[in-house]
Amino acid sequence: MPQKKLQKKHLIKACTCRKAVIQKELMKNNSQRIYQISQITETFNKLNDEEFNKIFQYINNLNKPQIGITKKRRNLIKHIELLPDIQISDVYNLLKTMVYPKGKDIGKILSSYLQKKACDFISTGIYKQEFSATAILNTTKNLQKQVNKLEKNANVSAIKIDSFSKCLGKAHQAKALYISKIKSAIQNAKKVTSNQYQKVTKQLFKINNKEYAAKFVKLATDISLIRHTSISATIECVTTRYKTM
User: In terms of Cα–Cα distance, which of 59, 222, 244, 33 is closest to 235?
Assistant: First the structure.
């Protein structure tokens, strides 16, 4: 006999036995329930087709969630039975591990939302190249090289800054010394006397008592041309002017 027919036969037999047991229990202990059922049946018989269909549809909707759960349970059992032996231990550990570790739901299977989050973490994390041990090691080495390079550059910069600071300090010292020398020179400078001034100006005009300097002659010539006077008069005027200064 084919397996499906055998299963159907067993199922019919089990249903028949179940009905018999239920009827026996109802007759024995639930006479009130039987009475209520009879009243419901009588009420159903009095309903018209439209009313009956509405109530029938409502009852079916009440049973749908349970039917769906039963179907999922059967599919789950069937799926587990079809798994290869090597995966049975993994499924067993999965059911033991993927539960709430504490709280009011302790021991219950994690919600679908948390299961999806765990799956997304595995998909986007573990399988990526940058999360492998080799990739992490290479990244660490590259980062260490960058750190060493930055430290070297920092040391070079520190040396340059120190050298520049020393040069700047020396420049400030040299500037201060130079200013100090200028101030000292100004303070120590001798005042020019009238006789010294007269002596210097005389040297500008004449080389000796008889001969004028060439530059002075040129200056007197230029002035005479501008003022339209004689050179001798111009020389006399300029000489007198310098003497009175």
Answer: 222
Coil, helix or strand for 89?
Answer: helix
**Listed residue (220, 192, 189, 191) closest to 204, CA to CA:** 220
Any idea where the domains of the chain sit in the sequence? 85-127, 142-189, 194-244
Give, in degrees to the nearest 5, the angle at Cα 207 between 206 and 211. 70
Phi, psi of 99 (to 5 degrees): -130, 160
This prediction has a pTM of 0.29
Residue 235 neighbours by CB distance under 10 Å? 19
Name the one residue in this structure whose structure tokens are 């021991």.
107
Contact 44, 55 (CB under 8 A): yes
- pLDDT per 10-residue tile (average), the chain, 245 residues: 59 68 65 72 76 75 68 84 86 86 87 86 67 73 88 87 82 75 67 64 64 69 66 64 54
Six-digit token string for 11: 């199922």
User: What's the longest Cα–Cα distance across the chain?
Assistant: 170
